[in-house]
C-alpha cells in the first residue's frame, strides 16, 4: 500500500466521522420526546390555516383551525361535559363488558382445538358484519337507552381482544408448559401463572386497539339513535349546517380516543413494565 | 425405604410420533440402566431422540413400546423427585431471580413460605448468584439465566436431575465454566444426572458414563465408562486420557455419519 493510498483512506474516514457525528446529533434532536411530532403537528395546522385564508375556502367545506376553535363556544361547557360523558360512558361500558367476555372465550379457544374450530368461524362472521349496518337493526331490536349502544360497542371491540389474547395464550414457551406438567400443577395455575402473564403484551396491544374502537362504536350508536353524546352533537351540527361545530366535536372525539389510548399505554408501563418491547437504541 | 439399585432403567423403549408426513420413529430398542448418583451423558447426532429419552424419564411422554422405570417403578406420569433443566433457561420474564427459583413450589402448591425463600437463596448462592435475587432475567447474561434454571430445578431437591443440552446456547468459555460449576455442585450433593449433549468434550469431562446413540431411530450403540479420577477440573481437559476418550467417541460418531 502506498502513502497516498493511506492518506486518502484516512481523509475519507474523517469525512465519514463528521457525517456520522452530524447524523447522531440530528438523530438525538429528533428523538427528544415529542419534539418532532409536535413540530409536524404545528406545521400542519399552520398550512391548514393559511390555505383556508389564501384560497378562501368556504367554511362549510373546510373551516380553518381558528374557526373550529370558535365552534367550541357554540354550546356551554356543561353541555360539552354532558355530551362527552354520554359517549365515554357507553364506550367504557362496552369496552369493559368486551374484556370480561373475551378473556374467558380466549382461554376456551386456546385450550380446545374442537371449540376453536367450532367458534372461530362465528367470530369471523360477526367481525365481517359492518357494525354501521347492524347498528340500526340492533337499536330497533333492543330499543333506546344504553343497552343497544353498549352491545354495538362490544361487537366492534370484541374480535381483536379475543384473537390477540388467544394468540398470546398460545405463545408461551413449550418448556414452561412442560415444567408445569412435570410438576403436575393444576391447569388453572398453568393459565394464571404462566399463560396469562405471557399473553400480557398481546392483550395490551389488543386493549389499545379496542379502546379506540370503543369510541367508534359509541359514536356509531349515537349516529343511529341518541339525544346526547359527541356523535349525536356532530350529526345535529351538520344537519344545522354548523360545520365548525361538527369539527369541534370531531376534535373532542380525537382527544378522547388519544387520552384513552394513552391511559392504556400508561397502565401497561405502570403495572407490566417487563412486557414492553426493549427500547430500540 | 428400600431403593432399587437402578435409578433409571430403559427396557426395549421405542417411541413413534404421528406427524403430518407419516409415522416418525424417534427411538427403537433403547436398553440402558443408570445407577443411583451416577452422572450419565447421552451423546448423539441431532434428531436422534435424545430429548425424547429425557421426556420419557420425566413422564411427559409415554413410550410406544417397552418401559421406562425410575427407582423400580414404571413411569406413567411425572414424578416429584425429578428436576428438569431445559436447553433455554425459559425463566418467567416478569419474576425476579428469587421468584423464578421458588416458582416450581408456587406453581405446584400455590404457596411459598419464608423458609422456602431461604432455601432458594441458599441455592442461588450455591450456583454463584448471591446478590442477584432481586434482578429480572432480562438483566442477566445467558449463563447466569441458566444458573437460575439449575437452581429452579434443584429447588424441590430432586433425586434425579434431567438436563437437556443445558449449556448449548452459551458461548464456549461460559459453557466450560458452567460444566465445571455443575460438577462442583454435583460432587457436593450427588444426584443421578441424565445429561443430554452433542458436545463430546463436555460429555467426557462431566460424566461417569457416556451413552452414544445412533441416528434416528435412536438406540444406544455404545456404553462407555469414563475412568477419569474425580474431582475433575480445568486441568482434566488437558489430560491425555481425556483426549483418548474424546478421540474414540469422535471417530465412532463420524464413522456412522460417513
From TrEMBL, chain A:
Chief localisation class: membrane
Subcellular localization: Cell membrane
Keywords recorded for this protein, A-Z: Cell membrane, Membrane, Transmembrane, Transmembrane helix, Transport
Domain ABC transmembrane type-1: from-to ranges: 84-264
Membrane protein topology class: Multi-pass membrane protein
SUPFAM superfamilies membership: MetI-like (SSF161098)
Transmembrane segment boundaries: 29-48, 86-110, 122-144, 150-171, 198-226, 246-272
InterPro entries to which the protein is assigned, alphabetical: MetI-like, MetI-like_sf
Top-level taxon of origin: Bacteria
Family classification: Belongs to the binding-protein-dependent transport system permease family.
Stored PANTHER family: ABC TRANSPORTER PERMEASE PROTEIN HI_0355-RELATED, ALKANE SULFONATE ABC TRANSPORTER-RELATED, MEMBRANE SUBUNIT
Name this protein carries in UniProt: ABC transporter permease
Source organism of this protein record: Chelativorans intermedius
TrEMBL record, chain B:
Keyword Transcription regulation part of the UniProt annotation: no
SMART domains membership: AAA
Single GO term (MF): ATP binding
Classification via InterPro entries: AAA+_ATPase, ABC_transporter-like_ATP-bd, ABC_transporter-like_CS, ABC_transporter_ATP-bind, P-loop_NTPase
Keywords on record: ATP-binding, Nucleotide-binding, Transport
Any Pfam family hit: ABC_tran
All residue ranges annotated as the ABC transporter domain in the record: 8-240
Keyword Transcription regulation: no
Family of the protein in this entry: Belongs to the ABC transporter superfamily.
Name this polypeptide is given: ABC transporter ATP-binding protein
Lineage: Bacteria, Pseudomonadati, Pseudomonadota, Alphaproteobacteria, Hyphomicrobiales
Amino acid at each position: 500500500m502506498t502513502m497516498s493510498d493511506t492518506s486518502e483512506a484516512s481523509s475519507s474516514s474523517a469525512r465519514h466521522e463528521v457525517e456520522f457525528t452530524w447524523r447522531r446529533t440530528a438523530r438525538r434532536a429528533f428523538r427528544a420526546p415529542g419534539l418532532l411530532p409536535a413540530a409536524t403537528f404545528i406545521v400542519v395546522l399552520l398550512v391548514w390555516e393559511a390555505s383556508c385564508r389564501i384560497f378562501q375556502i368556504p367554511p362549510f367545506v373546510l373551516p380553518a383551525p381558528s374557526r373550529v376553535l370558535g365552534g367550541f363556544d357554540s354550546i356551554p361547557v356543561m353541555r360539552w361535559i354532558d355530551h362527552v360523558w354520554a359517549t365515554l360512558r357507553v364506550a367504557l361500558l362496552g369496552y369493559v363488558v368486551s374484556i370480561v367476555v373475551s378473556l374467558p372465550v380466549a382461554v376456551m379457544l386456546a385450550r380446545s382445538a374442537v371449540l376453536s374450530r367450532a367458534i372461530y368461524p362465528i367470530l369471523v362472521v360477526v367481525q365481517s358484519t359492518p357494525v354501521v349496518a347492524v347498528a340500526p337493526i340492533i337499536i330497533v331490536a333492543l330499543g333506546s337507552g344504553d343497552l343497544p349502544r353498549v352491545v354495538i360497542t362490544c361487537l366492534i371491540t370484541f374480535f381483536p381482544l379475543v384473537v390477540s389474547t388467544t394468540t398470546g395464550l398460545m405463545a408461551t414457551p413449550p418448556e414452561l408448559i412442560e415444567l408445569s406438567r412435570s410438576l403436575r400443577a393444576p391447569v388453572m395455575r398453568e393459565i394464571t401463572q404462566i399463560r396469562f402473564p405471557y399473553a400480557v403484551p398481546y392483550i395490551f396491544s389488543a386493549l389499545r386497539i379496542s379502546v379506540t374502537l370503543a369510541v367508534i362504536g359509541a359514536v356509531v350508536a349515537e349516529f343511529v339513535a341518541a339525544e346526547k353524546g359527541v356523535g349525536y352533537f356532530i350529526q345535529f351540527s351538520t344537519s344545522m349546517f354548523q360545520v365548525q361545530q361538527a369539527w369541534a366535536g370531531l376534535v373532542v372525539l380525537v382527544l378522547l380516543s388519544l387520552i384513552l389510548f394513552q391511559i392504556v399505554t400508561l397502565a401497561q408501563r405502570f403495572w407490566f413494565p417487563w412486557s414492553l418491547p426493549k427500547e430500540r437504541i | 425405604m428400600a431403593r432399587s439399585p437402578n435409578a433409571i432403567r430403559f427396557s426395549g423403549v421405542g417411541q413413534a410420533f404421528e406427524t403430518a408426513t407419516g409415522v416418525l420413529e424417534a427411538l427403537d430398542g433403547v436398553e440402558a440402566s443408570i445407577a443411583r448418583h451416577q452422572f450419565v451423558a447421552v451423546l448423539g447426532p441431532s434428531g436422534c431422540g435424545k430429548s425424547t429419552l429425557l421426556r420419557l424419564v420425566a413422564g411427559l411422554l409415554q413410550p410406544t413400546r417397552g418401559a421406562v422405570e425410575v427407582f423400580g417403578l414404571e413411569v406413567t406420569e411425572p414424578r416429584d423427585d425429578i428436576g428438569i433443566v431445559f436447553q433455554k433457561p425459559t425463566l418467567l420474564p416478569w419474576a425476579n431471580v428469587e421468584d423464578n427459583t421458588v416458582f416450581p413450589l408456587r406453581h405446584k402448591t400455590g404457596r411459598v413460605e419464608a423458609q422456602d425463600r431461604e432455601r432458594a437463596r441458599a441455592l442461588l448462592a450455591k450456583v454463584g448468584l448471591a446478590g442477584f435475587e432481586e434482578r429480572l432475567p432480562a438483566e442477566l447474561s445467558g449463563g447466569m439465566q441458566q444458573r437460575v434454571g439449575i437452581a429452579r430445578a434443584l429447588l424441590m431437591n430432586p433425586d434425579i436431575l434431567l438436563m437437556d443440552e443445558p449449556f448449548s446456547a452459551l458461548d464456549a468459555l461460559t459453557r466450560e465454566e458452567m460444566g465445571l460449576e455443575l460438577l462442583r455442585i454435583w460432587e457436593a450433593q450427588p444426584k443421578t444426572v441424565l445429561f443430554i449433549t452433542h458436545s463430546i468434550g463436555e460429555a467426557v469431562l462431566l460424566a461417569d458414563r457416556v451413552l452414544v446413540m445412533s441416528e434416528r431411530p435412536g438406540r444406544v450403540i455404545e456404553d462407555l465408562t469414563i475412568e477419569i479420577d474425580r474431582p475433575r477440573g480445568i486441568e482434566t481437559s488437558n489430560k491425555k486420557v481425556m483426549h483418548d476418550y474424546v478421540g474414540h467417541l469422535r471417530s465412532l460418531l463420524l464413522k456412522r455419519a460417513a
